[in-house]
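W.,

You were right to be curious about this one. When I first looked at the sequence I had no strong expectations either way, so I just let the prediction run and decided to look at it fresh. Below is the sequence, 416 residues in total, followed by the output.
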Amino acid sequence: MILLNTRTSTNGFDGRLILYYVLLVIIGWMTIFSTSYNAANPQEFSFALPYVRQLVWIGTSVVIAVGILLLESRIIQHSGYYVYAFCLLLVLSTFVLGSKVNGATSWIKIGSFSIQPTEFMKLATALTLAQFFTEGKTVGQRRRLWVIAFAIILIPALTILLQKDTGSALVFLSFVVLFYREGMSGLIFVFGAIAVFLAVFTLMFNEIYAVALLTLVLVIAWIIDRRDKKKVLRNIIVFVVAVLFVAAVNIAYEKVLQPHQKQRIDTLMGKTSDPKGADFNLIQSKIAIGSGGFFGKGYLNGTQTKLNFVPEQSTDFIFCAIGEEWGFVGSCAITALFLMLVIRILRLSEKQRSPFVRYYGYGIAGIIAFHFFINIGMTVGLVPIIGIPLPFISYGGSSLWAFTGMLFIFIKLNDN
């Protein structure tokens, strides 16, 4: 209780955020240990073991966290553009130096290590947007502000999309949380909902049916607004934009997505069924989570994950192991922990004296929330499997370093 309610124990830094971070990292390591440890055939302490490697990532993450806390705040607040340029160069370098993993050319191998620059690009974009909004947010520049802000997001997102890493590219949509907080019209969510509906409708049927539906809506709108020329013109423009969007969705599906990604979407839409192929991951994931029941099978007792029925059980599907071993109660506890983390960041962001910290806080809160909800949604079949990690918990150095950096920069800058 002392850690939760005072700041003296952490030398002025927010104790709750540090506590949430420590708990999530410990839970992550325990789960990785559980999924890779074999009591019947114990191995020596070796860097080849995932839970040993994760200990190294955790140790280096602690070094990163301490290093950030020792920096001067003004250095962080003026580093956004430089960090953005450096990380973008790293992302671009994958086109020459990158190695293909799961169909995406987004990894750079350095000896026995691999780093994924896209993880750091998210942090860099959050910092850059915070610096840009701080330096350029004036009423006279409002339209120009939003254009540049969208460009800051689109440049890395499109670059990452060209690497065939669709999941990481979609994460940049999370910055809509920051945009909405800083004055963008709430209609963005209405347009977003319409865009999602059109995309799903196009994928479920085809672009011809989608255009036919849009034409019907246009005709109805013309009947209602035919005496108002401005509204008629507006409706036509909206219709053209919507048709172009439908065409873009179709092109993305046919030309951009990998075959396994298209299969996953078709499976989610109910268009195909392939229990031994495209559906295998999701089926095994649901079996693992469902087998945990209310209280779970107990730590180290998960059969589905122990016997490697669930692919990527230490990375993208690590939530399956939590659900199997700790059941509904444990899954709810993890969900509550993430919600408390995100809510805490948002509450502190609203209390900041520095606009920079508020912008940055909303940016990283959106990223963490997006990762959490999409990752959990993948494991239970609510969203297509797009391959993004569960923050602080999934195995991997790049992800843990990036999310550690995100959170501890906010902890350092927090002035409440």
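Here's what jumped out at me. The chain has two domains: 15-192+267-414, 205-257. And, maybe more interesting for your project: Residues 1-10 have pLDDT under 50 and may be disordered.

Coffee later to discuss?

I.
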